[in-house]
């Protein structure tokens, strides 16, 4: 809940409006948008002690995941990922799975689609940033995807529709040590 309140405050500041005056609509699969602000796209994700908020001038998606040891990542990758990504997870383990998952989810969220529509998006690449396309399926892309620098136990990615570059600028909305907050400290903004 705290992350949603912070989102409203940040969006209000960006638009020069009181946070309580913001009205939201939802896309076909539930992605929120600020009414009467067509040039402002945003997306929110939270996991564990971290919340990420992405703001952009084009459709954007962001995802953060706290690595969970209890997940059978090889089974999940085998069910949802393309063959080369299955092999990557089998070789590199849960960290590779979480990194790929956040990239896929960020692309799906940028598209305003359902998660199941994006599991086939090929997001394996060597660098921290790349342009990715789906060769077939309901979400062809392209998306420009970048990994976010986060604490070791987390993976996070941001994706924008299109292949144009973008800059990530990190800002702390408030600073309370993890474990003491009960909420979601850091956030990111995308330009």
Unreliable stretches covering 5 or more consecutive residues: 181-188
Q: Level of helix content?
A: 25-40%
Class inferred from helices and paired strands: alpha+beta
Mean pLDDT: 88
Would you summarize the structure shown here?
The protein has 191 residues and is an alpha+beta fold.
Describe the structure.
Strands 5-8-7-6 form a four-stranded antiparallel β-sheet. Strands 1-2 form a two-stranded antiparallel sheet. Strands 3-4 form a two-stranded antiparallel ribbon. It has helices at residues 2-15, 73-80, 83-92, 94-111; strands at residues 24-26, 32-34, 41-47, 50-56, 60-66, 129-132, 143-147, 154-161, 168-172, 186-190. It is 26% helix and 28% strand. Residues 181-188 have low confidence and may be disordered. It starts with a helix and ends with a strand. With 191 residues, the chain is of the alpha+beta class. It is built from four helices and ten strands.
What is the strand and helix layout of this fold?
Blueprint (H helix, E strand, L loop, with lengths): L1 H14 L8 E3 L5 E3 L6 E7 L2 E7 L3 E7 L6 H8 L2 H10 L1 H18 L17 E4 L10 E5 L6 E8 L6 E5 L13 E5 L1
Antiparallel strand pairs: 1-2, 3-4, 5-8, 6-7, 7-8, 9-10
Key structural traits:
single chain, alpha+beta, globular
């Amino acid at each position: 809940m705290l992350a949603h309140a912070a989102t409203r405050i940040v969006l209000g500041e960006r638009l020069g409006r009181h946070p309580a005056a913001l009205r939201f609509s939802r896309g076909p699969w539930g992605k929120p948008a600020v009414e009467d602000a067509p040039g402002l796209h945003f997306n929110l994700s939270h996991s564990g002690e971290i919340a990420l908020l992405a703001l952009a001038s084009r459709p954007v998606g962001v995802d953060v995941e706290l690595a969970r040891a209890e997940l059978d990542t090889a089974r999940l990758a085998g069910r949802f990922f393309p063959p080369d990504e299955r092999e990557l997870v089998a070789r590199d383990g849960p960290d590779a799975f979480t990194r790929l998952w956040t990239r896929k989810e960020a692309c799906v969220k940028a598209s305003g689609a359902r998660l199941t529509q994006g599991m086939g998006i090929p997001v394996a690449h060597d660098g921290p940033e790349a342009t990715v396309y789906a060769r077939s399926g309901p979400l062809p892309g392209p998306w420009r995807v970048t990994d976010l620098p986060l604490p070791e136990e987390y993976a996070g990615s941001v994706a924008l529709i299109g292949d144009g570059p973008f800059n990530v600028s990190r800002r702390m909305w408030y600073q309370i040590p993890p474990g003491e907050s009960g909420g979601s400290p850091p956030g990111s903004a995308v330009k």
